[in-house]
Write a structure and sequence with these properties.
The complex is a heterodimer. Chain A is of the alpha/beta class. Chain A is built from 18 helices and 22 strands. Chain A has three domains: about 230 residues, Rossmann fold, CATH 3.40.50.300; about 180 residues, Rossmann fold; about 70 residues, no CATH class. Classes of the chains: A alpha/beta, B mainly alpha. At the A-B interface, helix 10, helix 11, helix 12 and strand 18 of A face helix 8 and helix 9 of B. Chain B: It is a multi-pass membrane protein.
Chain lengths: ~500, ~350
Amino acid sequence: MALLSMKNISKSFFGKMANSQVCFDLEPGEIHALLGENGAGKTTLMNILYGIYSRDSGDIFWKGQKVSFTSPRDAIAFQIGMVHQHFMLVPTLTVSQNITLGLKEKGYPFTDRKALNATITEVAQKYGLQIDVNAYISNLSVGEQQRVEIIKLLYRDAELLILDEPTAMLTPQETEYFFEVLRKLRADGHSVIIITHRIPEIMSISDRVTVLRDGYNVVTAKTSDISEQELSRYMIGRQLQIIQREAVVSDTGSEGISLEEVSLKEKGRERLNSLSLQIAPGEIVGVAGVDGNGQKELVEVILGIRKQSSGKIRMDGVDMSSMSVLERKKLGIGYISDDRHQDGLVMDMSLTDNILLKTHTDRRFIKHGLINTRLVRAETQKAVEDYAIKTPGLNTPLRYLSGGNQQKLILAREMAGNPKAIIAHQPTRGLDIGATEFVQQQLLQHRSNGCSILLISADLEEVLLLSDRIAVLYKGCFMGIFPNTPELNLSQIGLLMAGKTSEARKESL
Amino acid sequence: MKQFGKLLSYLGIAFLTLSISILLILLVGSSVTQAFSSFLSGIFGSFYSVSEVMVKATPLILTGLGVAVGSRSGFINIGAEGQLYMGAIAVTFIAFWLNDLPAMVMIPLVILGGFVFGGIWSVIPGFLKARFGISEVITTLMFNYIALSIVGILVRTLLKDPASSLPMSAFLPDGATLPTLISTTRLHAGILVALISVVLVWLLVWKTPTGYEMRAVGLNPRASKCAGISVYKNIILSSLISGGLAGIAGVCEVSGLHHKLLEGISPGYGYIAIIVALLGKNHPVGVVISALGIAALQVGSLGMQRMAGVPTSISSIIMGVVVLLILARKSLFRRLLTDE
């Protein structure tokens, strides 16, 4: 008998079907991957199971019994637990406090913290999850935080664990370690649903896989019976285009963007440590590294959003170290932020107003002191057409556009007027394969136009795909800058990303 | 469907408000029909009563506009009341100091003075917010008490009318008074000042690059910063304009209506302004409509008290009910508004 069975689940948002008649079965003790592009309805389906969304129609059976959860609390009572893509932890509390958060333990409100800690450690060690129960969440790495989330579920006796994109922020080595934990969980009789869009990981970890596309389930198969090519075809409905990087010879004679021993100190901590880098016109330099090792700081120092403590930043030989954000952008820098909701867009403003975010100081758009609305609308219309942005209208607030279309608007804005440099931080985060390909092609297009591009991505594959050179960033230091050739030693890069310099040196010998 | 659901939800609010008003009227033992007819005739009954609505709406429009401008850039101004009084102080000072100027010069001067005084009263909290991150909700509110006390001191000392034993200033010189528009009413040129301000603010906030920056900062300061917009500058600017408009409200009340400075020239306009801005969705046109609506509610309830013996405090209760219902609308009528 199936442990969990979801039958004909349908759910629509704003009249758009997110799930249409989706069926999903889970056997006890299996790792089942849920594969699909972003927006295919994977997370929606799991949120319906977990009681976060209500379904429009369909039934859910848990151990043969018909269930209907209206909140995660209900789901947890039935021993179902979920780790969201964005962790739900309180940074100012300790690991132990986070794990027992919301539970009324014996003796509440005077809980015996020592006894609890012992239980937590016992649970954690059983599955090889190493954690310091007294550490504060804010001091933990992403990988460690993920462990806390998993321990939290195990502590609540979860029999089924739902993991939403669990490997998105991990290094290759951390991922391997994480998969080991999953295998131990499976051996112990737990079932796992893992949501992902990374096919190689599915091949290595899952027993069965269900593919969703546009809200429909396309196929469910044993992983051993299906190939990577078949999976990718099921997932995107067509063959993937292979992106080709052609050599670009730049003869513009300009210097591009250069950093000279740039350091950043904040609150007594060294965020960036004497970084030097030059990006020639027509070159893409990719930065590989685990999130939170200074990527954001690096990007924001170049843009002038934060001020470096020392060092110089030049653009075509012009020292812009002390310029404002606006002055730097006017030198021709396009900026794609990793957090489009917070940094890149004003979600409650229309498309037109978001285009203005970069152009409102541009003389072309101002007539007699007033904004030339007609011209801005024309510009926005052009962006919508050129970048095939799907929107009900130019006045629609950005909030109602899909992630891919929001990102396209940022591209349209930041790539307008042939910038001399583009700082792209996680430009394809959260995008489906089609949109990702589009963004990557745009970057290559600008590369061949002689643009200097800094590409920062947590996705090593992407860095390898697009970059001419790869810089590895760890704790604010460049661990090395390597030309991206077929001879590149990947495990060496992986070790450097984790800061293991000596092991990486052994690897390279 | 979406528009229809929205309409229904507002009708629902109207219905609930009406039911609660009826209950309250029954509770004080008055006849409902008499209460409603006297309410309506209190507003539309005569030329004078309609003009009274406009008189009350004038300070509400100006202060409400000020609060709205602040909200647009994330400056929550609870201090319109104090800023209004600072404007009132400004006009009295200037009028007695330069007492022989002709109206042509004097009127623009006192309006400017009121703007500056009210603006300063609001820029100080604005600066504290922009520079040190101190909550403007607290500081603007506290500044109200300071302003009220300053008025109290001034009307007993520096600005006191020596000919009177009451704590109030002498009558302003003629040059500093706003003309009455219609001779048999109290309606003064302040309403024109208010409407001109509405147009100017609309132009500034919705049509200029500066206004665009202010709105962007209000909706997403982080994205604004990343785009090179100075959050600091825009908070300072919007707090200045926000307080300045409330200051002009004070000028209009003194120059147009009371013709002298005294305590209690505002029965809480600066606080009702927050409701005006809220109901008007922080849009200049919305502010005018909601200011007129609230003014009518107050004037009408006076009529209700006179003719049907229903206490005016009912109007405050109803105002509170409307605000609550509007704030709770999306949860109350969730089924109607699935798409919002």
